[in-house]
Design goal:
With about 220 residues, this protein is α/β, with parallel strands linked by helices. The chain is built from seven helices and ten strands. The strands form two sheets. A six-stranded mixed β-sheet has the order 6-7-8-3-9-10.
């Protein structure tokens, strides 16, 4: 599914070059649930942004489902991202002026899915995350756990091959976090999705198939 080999990433800060990732190699098989753990600033989010085709990289190679995505232009990467990659963020990243239904539907609109198919998929995934009765409410009227379930529904509604989750339980109490983790695992199995999660939450890593540690841009 994911094959990273010798990935390096550097940022320019003023006159200095700051390394963010160094010689990162990682293999994630299909349908696996894999966590990258480490302290803030260790490079976890940078790695996830590369895997999610949000950021590029300076060294190494990245193959996603066998395709050398590092060689693609921005338009091609954007198309893959819209059709095949879902995202779940710590801060939810929901559009506040849209209803729950509209937030979940939005990636399907970007992908050009027909009206009837959009409605069918949104209804189905909202039922799966137990939010059918909240479909017309705005995100600011929901609890943190409900908003994260909306984010999970939005990530999975387009039936992605890969879901990238950045600290998805960091803002949640233990009971809610455990429910969110169970939901991601359950829906991942149902949709056949591969999950790559950045976290420092032991509640999350305890449920993962593989856990890798990142420190100072090096994956151990």
């Amino acid at each position: 599914m994911i094959e990273l080999r010798g990935i390096g990433k550097r940022y320019r800060v003023g006159d200095s070059i700051v390394p963010a990732l160094s010689e990162v190699s990682l293999t994630v098989p299909h349908r696996a649930f894999v966590a990258i753990r480490g302290p803030s600033g260790s490079g976890k989010s940078t790695l996830l942004n590369i895997c999610g085709l949000i950021d590029g990289f300076d060294d190494g190679s990245y193959r996603l489902e066998g395709e050398n995505v590092g060689a693609l232009n921005e338009a091609s990467r954007t198309l893959i991202r819209r059709r095949h990659i879902g995202f779940v963020f710590q801060s939810y990243n929901l559009v506040p002026v849209m209803s729950v239904r509209e937030n979940v539907e939005y990636p399907l609109r970007l992908a050009g899915v027909s009206d009837n198919e959009r409605q069918r998929r949104v209804d189905a995934v909202l039922a799966q995350v137990d939010l059918s009765d909240q479909a017309e409410r705005r995100p600011d009227l929901l609890s943190g756990g409900q908003r994260q379930r909306v984010a999970i529904a939005r990530a999975l509604v387009k039936k992605p091959a890969l879901v990238i989750a950045d600290e998805p339980t960091a803002n949640l109490d233990t009971a809610t976090a455990n429910r969110v983790i169970e939901l991601m695992r359950e829906l991942g199995r149902q949709y056949g999705a591969t999950f790559l999660v950045a976290t420092h939450d032991d509640r999350m890593t305890a449920h993962c198939d593989q856990v890798r540690t990142m420190r100072d841009g090096v994956l151990q």
